[in-house]
Design brief:
The chain has one domain. It contains ten helices and eight strands. With about 260 residues, the chain is of the alpha/beta class. The longest helix is centred in the middle third of the chain and has 23 residues. The chain is about 40% helix and about 10% strand. The strands form three sheets. Strands 3-4-6-5 form a four-stranded mixed sheet. The chain has a two-stranded antiparallel sheet with strand order 1-2. Strands 7-8 form a two-stranded antiparallel sheet. The relative contact order is 0.17. Bound molecules: zinc ion. Zinc ion (ZN) binds next to helix 4. Zinc ion binds next to helix 4.
């Protein structure tokens, strides 16, 4: 339960991410039905009490993810973004894992329902079909969800306007869609910087911003499951910008390099 400073309350957890970018054909980032569980976290009794960021064996045993992880861990902007998970004050670990139970149109999912861990699951069924840059984008997207969840946890799920005014504002305005709406409005540049560094700055800043909109320009309405909505931030762009973004996302999906080396 989330308690606002005016005394009103709303449930805050769990809010599942379904970062959904279709692997082909579809035009939308369609998250399907809400809720449900996804196979859980078998045998992951972590004896180490120190908060940290950790990939699972399943994650590292996937050759493509392993290769991407090697690059990610050299990514200064990525490491810097997640550094609060590694601090003494953090009470939650961030675990990178794979899932074979996600729908094909879902790239990844961030699970905030475990007491001392946040899990990021990457859809292993479809990863071979995904461009490397797209997989990195999914990981960054989910990492932002995780960091937002960490912030909410850091104040015992009780957000006030005094500690995280941005989250407070977006939660009040958008309820269960607060994360995607906030990310669309305020995190495109952060994602673009991570992608630019990951990709060795091969393309323009505009390109990395454009592809960062995947999963953020249109997403499943968590307040009205089964319905796709456009983010407010995307809706406010010109039709020319919107089309450029959609084209860049589609082009990466269809033509992006799929081999990590
Ligand atoms: Zn998401």
């Amino acid at each position: 339960m989330e308690v606002f400073s005016d005394g009103s309350t709303r449930p805050v957890s769990p809010i599942y991410c379904r970062d959904a970018s279709p692997i082909g054909g579809g035009s939308g980032d369609s998250g399907s039905s809400g809720g449900g569980s996804y196979g859980g976290n078998p045998g992951r009794g972590d004896p180490d009490p120190d908060p940290k960021i950790e990939p699972t064996d399943n994650f590292l045993n996937n050759a493509k993810l392993n290769c991407i992880w090697e690059k990610l861990t050299k990514n200064n902007s990525f490491n810097n973004y997640l550094k609060n998970f590694d601090q003494d004050f953090s009470t939650v670990d961030l675990i990178f894992d794979t899932s074979t139970n996600l729908p094909n149109n879902v790239n990844g999912r961030t699970d905030n329902s475990t007491s001392d861990k946040i899990y990021i699951y990457i859809n292993e069924n479809t990863i071979s079909q995904k461009p490397v840059l797209g997989v990195a984008r999914t990981i960054f997207h989910e990492a932002i969800h995780a960091e937002l969840f960490r912030k909410v946890r850091s104040v015992n799920n009780q957000i006030s306007i005094d500690d995280f005014p941005g989250i407070y504002d977006y939660y009040r305005r958008y309820l269960k869609n607060w994360q995607h709406q906030q990310m669309a409005a305020h995190y495109i540049d952060i994602m673009a910087n991570m992608l630019k560094e990951f990709d060795g700055e091969q393309k323009s800043d505009q390109y990395y911003k454009d592809i960062s909109w995947s999963g953020l320009y249109k997403f499943n309405d968590k307040n009205n499951p089964g319905t796709l909505i456009y983010s407010t931030a995307f809706s406010e762009l010109s039709s020319t910008e919107q089309q450029r973004i959609i084209n860049a996302i589609s082009n990466l999906r269809n033509n992006g390099n799929k081999i990590c080396n």
